[in-house]
Amino acid sequence: MILDSMFTQNDIIGTGLQAAVVRNDVISNNIANADVPNYKKKVVRFESYLAGAIADSKKTGRIDLKNAIPTVHLSNDNYSYRVDGNNVDMQSEMVDLYNNSVKYDVMISGIVNNYKRINLISTIK
Amino acid sequence: MGFFHSMNVSASGLTAQQARMDIISQNIANVDTTRTEDGTPYKRKTVLFQERTGGTSFSTHFSTAMNEATSGNGVRVSQVVEDKREGTKVYDPEHPDANDEGYVEKSNVNIVDEMVNMISASRSYEANVTAINTTKAMMSKTLEISR
């Protein structure tokens, strides 16, 4: 990827972090509302927007993260057999919660290593 | 938004499940009550949950229509309803609460139903606690960037 500054990669990871925070919020809301009749679960869309921004950056050489913001949508998927109209599946929400927190940890490690690498450059005598 | 909003959402889930547990405990304690303050047998109560939304502003209705959503504000107990079905009638003419034909109407609490609801409330409470722990771990991890 062509980067226009040392810090661009951290900006990209930063948008991923923001999406992970929104996703954690949405999953917590789904878990809290798992007993509400006729509640439809919410999902977060972000990865497709980021992939679009990265694909565009290959043409111009610079990345524009203006449109890579997470959005919240209602999901009408219904893989559960509940009679009260609620389509939250507790197992998949818990798994998503855990996966999201692991991805968050990985992204944090990426940012920390990037800053260490930049720090190393600044110690060259 | 941020992490504190996630904490509030999960805390609202804890509060709602706690209220549900209170009502279940009340039902179980009153399983044999044949006379309440107004003379009738005890009728079991249940809680109704509703999603707590951001309000009735135009932007919330508009985003619902466009199938987008805001990420919600958790859950709340909207009301406590009484179950008005009749309890079983038992023939016992010596009982102080017997009616003219000698039948005593028991409360309409079914212990098995209450136990199942109790297990469900307990599991939902645990799931909300797990969500809070996950949010807390993410918050701690964030502080490592500047270490």
Short description:
The complex is a heterodimer of chains A (125) and B (147). Chain A has 125 residues and is mainly alpha-helical.
Structural summary, described in words:
The complex is a heterodimer of chains A (125) and B (147). With 125 residues, chain A is mainly α. In chain A, 57% of the residues lie in helices and 6% in strands. Chain A has 3 helices and 2 strands, in the order αβαβα. The relative contact order of chain A is 0.20. In chain B, the strands form 2 sheets. Chain B has a two-stranded antiparallel ribbon with strand order 1-2. Chain B has a two-stranded antiparallel sheet with strand order 3-4. In chain B, helix 1 runs antiparallel to helix 3. Chain B is elongated. At the A-B interface, helix 1, strand 2 and helix 3 of A face helix 1, strand 1 and helix 3 of B.
The tally of beta strands of chain B, per DSSP, is: 4
Estimated share of beta-strand residues of chain B: 5-15%
Largest interface: A-B, 35 and 42 residues
Shape of chain A: elongated
> Structural class of the helix and strand makeup of chain A?
mainly alpha
Mean pLDDT rating of chain B: 89
Low-confidence residue ranges of chain B: none
Distance between the termini of chain A: 29 Å
Individual helix count of chain B = 3
> What is the chain-wise order of helices and strands of chain A?
HEHEH
Radius of gyration of chain B: 22 Å
